[in-house]
Amino acid sequence: MSRDQPRRGRLLRPVRREAPEAVKVPSAPSSASARDTLPSALRARIRRALLRWYDRHARDLPWRRRRHDPYAQWVAEIMLQQTRVETVIRYYERFLRRFPDVNRLAAARHDTLLKYWEGLGYYRRALHMHEAARRIVKEGNGLPASAEAWRRLPGIGEYTAAAVASIAFGEPVAAVDGNVARVLARLFGVTDAVAPSEGRRRIRGIADRLVSPSRPGDFNQAWMDLGSMVCTPRGPRCDVCPLASCCRSAHRVETVGRLPRRGRHRPLPE
């Protein structure tokens, strides 16, 4: 999933280091043992540092101004699948003006819908969204409030369901895309390839234990922003990373450059 930033918040500056001996990051846990190997002090420290950074540097994106609107979040997350942020921005507001709610979307003709999607590519996304909107309207229960319910709809995978549920409804569920997987792999030194199921389970186990119970939506978006702005695939900016003092890979070129391991190509779920 491409989520490169078009614009940023405040200028990123080198982060003042906390005492590295205060809390040490353990070796990467398996999903089964994540509860036992991520001490509460470490979880609290990571949450506090990441949210403090996010409050200062969060990207100004149009869908974040509609954070409590699940329909607007859903549209944004579907558009962002395999599409760069700056491209989505050009289409997002126009699409919402034409289809401002799930009822208008459900009632749209296919040709009209595809006209407003033209240029974004991956047209199956629009058709799946249309099918899901019709199902939602037909069932008459409104937009789902949980990630589990979102996953039952066409075109919605684990990541999109978690993103919408956490941002719009405050459900404490982790949303793990490629950016988040990269950050967590480096932070905890996960050496398993993230493509095979075992690697994904380990990353998921870490993410589930770290998610903030009080600000899950902001926390998930903070991981995304950190991966887009700081912990980038190439040339990560460890000097401005809020988690550098407790990261197993910070400033270690030989480690940062090879994590996460990809294994056989199999993208993380949308």
Please give a structural write-up:
The protein is mainly α. The chain folds into 2 domains: 34-58 and 173-256, Orthogonal Bundle (Endonuclease Iii, domain 2), CATH 1.10.1670; 62-169, Hypothetical protein, domain 2 (Endonuclease III, domain 1, Orthogonal Bundle). It contains 13 helices and no strands.
> How far from one another are the termini?
8 Å
Number of strands: 0
CATH topology of the largest domain: Endonuclease Iii, domain 2
CATH homologous superfamily heading of the largest domain: Helix-hairpin-Helix base-excision DNA repair enzymes (C-terminal)
Estimate the global geometry from the Cα principal axes: elongated
> In CATH terms, what is the architecture of the largest domain?
Orthogonal Bundle
Largest β sheet strand count, sense and barrel closure:
none
| pLDDT < 50 stretches | 4-8, 16-24, 30-36, 265-269
What is the rounded Rg? 19 Å
User: Which class of secondary structure composition applies to the elements?
Assistant: mainly alpha
Q: What proportion of the residues form beta strands (DSSP E)?
A: under 5%
Total of DSSP H or I helical runs spanning 4+ residues: 13
Which characteristics define this entry?
disordered C terminus; Endonuclease Iii, domain 2; elongated; 2 domains; Endonuclease III, domain 1; 0% strand; mainly alpha; 270 residues
In brief:
The chain is mainly alpha-helical and 270 residues long.
